């Protein structure tokens, strides 16, 4: 299927917001691949598995009972693991950390590949992640890579926490962003990088509406 828009980039850059808006606008399905890695990391944690035990990791990936409940337009609403709503715990920083670490393991990435590719259904798919344009959907017709300075991404994360009625310390958030960047960019397996044919948008000075408008121009 060619009707695929991939949106890759580092954590906190606004991929999720842009992907949701584009899926809604185009009336295409949505794949939040980070949610799959996060849910998998939680499943491994719940099972008490050793992350060095690759055989067990593959088994957990292959039998992962994961369900996305979506609303019209393909917007992600809730994620269920073994029937349990994990949407809230999925978003905490500790889960992101676990996901970032476990996502470096090659057998994990290949065990989760088909599950991600299965999201490509008519009329189209918007896929957000780290390797959507490079590894998961290399033939996608539309590819975007979003960037922003680490400082700006940390500020955005702080604002998001505050909007959720929570709080955070900017220096700690920035340290987490830098640490996760390091791991995501430098890992051996499917490192975070822009596909050669991706449109690169530096969003540091742009509003979310300006980013959505630029992505919209590429697709429409
Ligand atoms: O996008 P996110 O923050 O929800 O992703 C959490 C972690 O999962 C991220 O730090 C790296 C990993 N990930 C990945 O390796 N490949 C993807 N396509 C998506 C996420």
Q: What characterizes the major β-sheet?
A: 5 strands, parallel
Beta content: 15-25%
Q: Bound small molecules, which ones? A: 2'-deoxycytidine-5'-monophosphate
Average pLDDT number: 93
Description:
The radius of gyration is 16 Å and the shape is globular. It has 220 residues and is of the alpha/beta class. It has a single domain, classed as 3-Layer(aba) Sandwich (Rossmann fold). The model has no long low-confidence stretch (mean pLDDT 93). A hairpin with a 3-residue loop joins strand 3 (66-71) and strand 4 (75-81). It has a five-stranded parallel β-sheet. It contains ten helices and eight strands. 50% of the residues lie in helices and 18% in strands. The protein has helices at 15-26, 33-47, 54-62, 87-90, 93-102, 106-117, 132-136, 150-163, 170-186, 208-219; strands spanning 4-8, 29-32, 66-71, 75-81, 84-85, 125-129, 142-147, 199-202. The longest helix is centred in the C-terminal third of the chain and has 17 residues, at 170-186. Residues 11, 33-34, 37-38, 96, 99-100, 103, 129-131, 180, 184 line the site of 2'-deoxycytidine-5'-monophosphate. 2'-deoxycytidine-5'-monophosphate (DC) binds next to helix 2, helix 5 and helix 9.
